[in-house]
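Quick bug: peroxidase output formatted oddly.
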Amino acid sequence: MGRELGWRWRVAAWWAVVAVAVGGAGAGLLESNPGLAYNFYQTTCPNVDSIVRSVTWAQVAANPALPGRLLRLHFHDCFVQGCDASILLDNAQSEKTAPPNLSVGGYEVIDAIKTQLEQACPGVVSCADIVALAARDAVSYQYKASLWQVETGRRDGPASLASNTGALPSPFAGFNGLIQSFAARGLNLTDLVVLSGAHTIGKASCSSVTPRLYQGNSTNVDPLLDSAYASRLMSSCPNPSPSSATVDLDGSTPLSFDNNYYINLQNKQGALASDTALTQNAAAAQIVNDLTNPTKFYAAFSMSMKKMGRIDVLAGSKGQIRKQCRAVNTS
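Here's what came back:
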């Protein structure tokens, strides 16, 4: 009971920080609202939040890896054509067939949620909104309280092309490549560092890590990696590594959504080159240091997720509400 109250106190504390931010620097975000709203389905599907939460929490209880997968699914959806659920579509050349998305998961959770929502409110709730809500609820399962608010009202896109996934940031990207990728989507330096904190959960394929450990048949460790941590990475990712091999992005608390990611970065324990890149720019490194404060991290993550969830959304009469998330409506 004491631990639960402690988590609830922390949730209240960071929401207080969010409230202050929205009243000040965050006010500009409200002016750029692309047609989304809180409680968008209040009259058309009033139980949408409870349905999404119930299904998501049940699935996460059975599979603790799902928060990382669903958060990544949301990110990969929004960074390609905007938050339109295009990553969910099944076809021979869809986004999910592209190399950066082959390791993305969580689709079965979205399908399960959609099935229940179609029974409760046929043709009302978009798959794009389900992706956004499920990501939030999966991460929040640990705390039994929402870590950020989700605006809804997105509609689903009609197309998905693997060729568009070049918009996704590379795990090998340096700082300049990362900041350019985020800026192209209306996200700034703070958003880059804050959203990278999603790497406090989830896994990376060894193919994204081994270039920092080996060169050909020889060991060649990136000098920006802590030597003991590099040895741990090599134990998970031998040379050569099986194609299915993975490593925890956060080697300290891999299943806990917390701010240890930033502490790891300061200790030269970022798994990906793109993680370490955040420490190689003075302004980014200062934000990394700020986010070692957990209350600042949770408050900042809430605001940056809100911004990401607005990227190139379809709203109003644009797009459609898919009956099945894996296929566009045929009529």
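Actually, after a second look the formatting is fine. The mean pLDDT is 92. Closing.
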